[in-house]
Amino acid sequence: MTAQDQATLVRRGLALAWFIVVWDVIEGVVAVTAGLAADSIALVGFGIDSAIEVFAASVVIWQLRAGAHARQQPALRAIAVTFYALAAYVAFESIRDLITQDKAGESLIGIVLNVVALIVMTPIALAQRRTGRALNNPVLVAQSTETWMSNALSITVLVGLGLNATLGWWWADPVVALVVAALAVQSGREAWHEASESSTPEKHPGTSEERP
C-alpha cells in the first residue's frame, strides 16, 4: 500500500467516524427528548446507547488523527470499555423487562428511530469494516463491530414488536438482547486482549533483541 493510499483510507475512516458522531448526537437528542416527554424508559435508553456510540467514534477520531497505526493500545482499551458499557446497559434493560414482564410497546418515534438507524447505519458499518481491514487497523474494525451490535439491537426491538403482536412472545426481545449483551462482553475482551498484545514489543526473527 502506498502512502497516498493509506492517507486516503485514513481520511475515509475519519469521515465515517465523524458521520457517526453527528448522527448519534442528533439521534440521541431526539430519543432522550421524546423519551422524557413521553415518560418512555426505552427511548431514553436508546439515547444512552447513542451516547456510547458517540464516545466510541470519538476514540476512533482521536486514534486516526495521530496516524493509521498510532495510539492503538489506549484506543482499543477505550473501545473495550464501550463494549462493556453497552453490555451493562443492554443486560440491565433486558433483565428488568423479564422481571417486570414488560411487553414490547415502542412509541411511533421509537419505531421510526430504529428503522432509520438500520437503513443508515448498516452501510456505514460495512464501510467501517472494509476501511479498517484495508488499513489493518483493529480500532476501526472494533468500532464497526459495535455499530453492528447497535444495529442488532434495533432488529431485536422491531422483531420483538412483531412477535409480541402475532404470537404474544413478549419475552423474545429481552432474551435476544441478552445474547447481544454477551457478544458485547466477548468483543470487549477481544479488544482488551488485542490492546495488550499491541503493547508487547516486537522482536526480530531469530533473535532475542527487541525491535527499536
UniProtKB/TrEMBL annotation:
Q: What membrane topology does this protein have?
A: Multi-pass membrane protein
Any keyword Zinc? yes
Q: Does the keyword Signal apply?
A: no
Listed transmembrane segments? 12-34, 40-62, 74-92, 107-127, 148-172
Region (Disordered) location: 192-212
Give the main location: membrane
Mind naming one GO cellular-component term on file for this protein? membrane
The UniProt keywords, alphabetically, are:
Cytoplasmic vesicle, Endosome, Membrane, Synapse, Transmembrane, Transmembrane helix, Zinc
Q: Localized where? A: Cytoplasmic vesicle, Secretory vesicle, Synaptic vesicle membrane; Early endosome membrane
Coiled-coil regions in this chain? none
> One GO molecular-function annotation for this sequence?
monoatomic cation transmembrane transporter activity
A Pfam match is: Cation_efflux
Residues in Cation efflux protein transmembrane domain copies: 78-190
Family of this protein: Belongs to the TMEM163 family.
What is the name listed in the Swiss-Prot or TrEMBL entry for this protein? Answer: Cation transporter
Q: Which organism is it from?
A: Prauserella flavalba
Top-down, what is the taxonomic lineage of the species of origin?
A: Bacteria, Bacillati, Actinomycetota, Actinomycetes, Pseudonocardiales
